[in-house]
Amino acid sequence: MIANMAALGAALCWAAGGLIAIGPVRVLGSIAFNRVRLTIVAAALLVATTLLGGWQTLDTGAALTLALSGLLGIVVGDMALFWSLSRLGPRRNVVIYAANAPLTALLAYALLGEALGPWTVLGVALVTLGVMLAVALRSGSTHSWEAIQGNLLAGVSVCLLAAVGQAAGSIIAKPVMAAGADPIASAAVRVTTAALMFTTIGVLSAVRGGAAGAGAGGLGGLLVPRGLTPKLMLQIAGNGLLGVGLGMTLLLVGLAHGNAGVVATLSALSPVLILPMMWLLTGQRPSLGAWAGAAVAVAGVALIVNR
Fold this sequence. Notes:
Elements: H1 2-28, H2 30-52, H3 60-88, H4 90-97, H5 100-112, H6 118-136, H7 152-178, H8 183-209, H9 230-257, H10 260-267, H11 270-282, H12 288-305
Helix pairs in contact: 1-2, 1-3, 1-9, 1-10, 1-11, 2-8, 2-9, 3-4, 3-7, 3-8, 4-11, 5-6, 5-7, 5-10, 6-12, 7-9, 8-9
């Protein structure tokens, strides 16, 4: 029950976080957005872990494993996820990203020996079909959040890459969490690693492009990216604390107590949660194709959970 509730909580955090992120991502770009939000969340998690004494649950090996998990799940996963978010909009992006659930179940079977029965195989097929339907029968909405920017196939492909990164990161972290690592300390290691990596990417990009033209005022643009306003900063902080801080911690709690495939599957309910959120915020009803795709994906989720 703890694992299931934690995974559902992560799904809710990610659905809401995706809506908060769309504006800042389209203004700042995925790398600058991630650098700012991960720096904020890393600082918060480091302070929380120190105050709560979570460091004692991690040894060097566990910390390195979690760092690798962060590189794949956050750096690779988030760079791809938010790049595609700026192209596809939040609804399509979250629906496609739900593919991380069957991918995690398959990797858990192959690498961790977690059973993958015939009902799970059928569930994987239904989730995949649901993703295809949700994209193929996309909404004709004219709201700015629904606009496709750039090539649709490129956006879908990069979003699927994000799903692979998330799945791999979860599988790598699973043994560490099952061994008793503190979820907040584990999230702190993963997020701090990712924040340092995004900062390094920013520095290298600034140096390669010429410090004088990088960001807002040379290398200083790494701290204050061009276009960053107080309103955007609040949105980034909200997204980070909700989607990364709380959402990731809940996911790690789920991995510590439950089956990796089941946890990933329940956390993939974000497509279902985001549809009514979009309807409420935009006033525009999602298309029947979006509902149909989400329904098929949920059917697959149900089969995987009940295998």
